[in-house]
Amino acid sequence: MSPFFLLSLLFGLAFGRTASLCAPSEYVIHVEKRECAYCLAINTTICAGFCMTRDSNGKKLLLRSALSQNVCTYKEILYQTVLIPGCPLHIIPYYSYPVAVSCKCGKCNTDYSDCVHEKVRTNYCTKPQKLCNM
């Protein structure tokens, strides 16, 4: 075995877990209010990517907390607020959304993340669209 291959293998084993592919990723969300005339397409960032997980063969022998899998989730977020155009005066036209600053592999926190991947596509507009670049 060549020294380069052996060194590469050792480096990969040592740092492979920390070098996961979980990172902020560009994403477009669509926001609309029933009373407003327009749908707003917002460019933002979300956490997306691959995290190392382990599937235990002895699931019946372990505590439930030991079975949770790591997901790509927020490490640091900030909130932006936008104005939805075309709203009547009696409607609050503001919408706040999270922007991923940094991400990590960890347990999914339902306080600020949707931990279930649904196959139904709900990110679309039913009204005329305006683009919001933040």
Automatic annotation (TrEMBL):
SMART domains: GHB. SUPFAM superfamilies: Cystine-knot cytokines (SSF57501). CDD domains: GHB_like (cd00069). One of its GO terms (biological process) is estradiol secretion. Residues 1-16 form the signal peptide. Residues 21-125 form the Glycoprotein hormone subunit beta domain. It holds the Pfam family Cys_knot. GO terms for molecular function: hormone activity. It is found in: Secreted. One of its GO terms (cellular component) is cytoplasm. InterPro entries: Cystine-knot_cytokine, Glyco_hormone_CN, Gonadotropin_bsu, Gonadotropin_bsu_CS. Keywords: Disulfide bond, Glycoprotein, Hormone, Secreted, Signal. Belongs to the glycoprotein hormones subunit beta family. Heterodimer of a common alpha chain and a unique beta chain which confers biological specificity to thyrotropin, lutropin, follitropin and gonadotropin. This is Thyrotropin subunit beta. It comes from Crypturellus undulatus.
